[in-house]
Amino acid sequence: MDDAARSCERIVREDLDRLAAIARSDRQARFERRPRWRPYADRVLCVALCQGAALHFIDGRTGVKDFDVYTFYAEHPAGAFPARWRIQADFGMSRFGRHPGDPDSFRGRRVDLIGRSLDVSPNADPVQVVRSYLAAAPTETARHLARKAVVLIDPEPLRGRVVWP
Predict the structure, then answer these.
(1) How many beta carbons lie within 10 A of that of residue 121, not counting itself?
(2) Which of 27, 72, 119, 142 is deepest in the core (most CB within 10 A)?
(3) Cβ of 54: how many Cβ atoms within 10 Å?
(4) Euclidean distance between the first and the last CA atom of the chain, given in angstroms as a whole number
(5) Which residues are bridge partners to 90 per DSSP?
(6) Helical (H) or strand (E) element with 31
(7) SS3 state of residue 15
(8) Bridge partners of residue 118, in order along the sequence
(9) With 60 as the cut, is the pLDDT of residue 52 above it?
(10) Nearest-CA neighbor of 3 among 68, 70, 52, 58?
(11) How far is CA 133 from the centre of its chain?
């Protein structure tokens, strides 16, 4: 990855607000398209900025290639949230610019929207749930996410809270 393609602009509260809105809109659209997964609409534990962009939020040096946004759900008895259900969205025009490797239709940085269901109660503490998931590293995804950082963007009172490392 060419470091010149990364944006070194700081991620601020308004950017986290925007990512939260993008994630919320994505969830609404997903559940409209796939009614089978609607039971997850009320099982959101938290939404988090992960990987390199989360590390950049913390250190201001890593740079932003894209925004990886994970929604963590309390697993529903009907089955696990589909782990491969990844959607791409456009952050839109911003000071972060556009990554040259992103689709030409994007005006800004790519936002990868991913969901994971965890075997916890819907009223579990989101901070503890994410920390436990990453510390236990039960999946390849958890091991991958644990290598960098995780910053909560929802629920709103926890927005900007670093939960990993």
Answers:
(1) 12
(2) 72
(3) 28
(4) 23
(5) 110
(6) helix 13-33
(7) helix
(8) 74
(9) yes
(10) 52
(11) 15
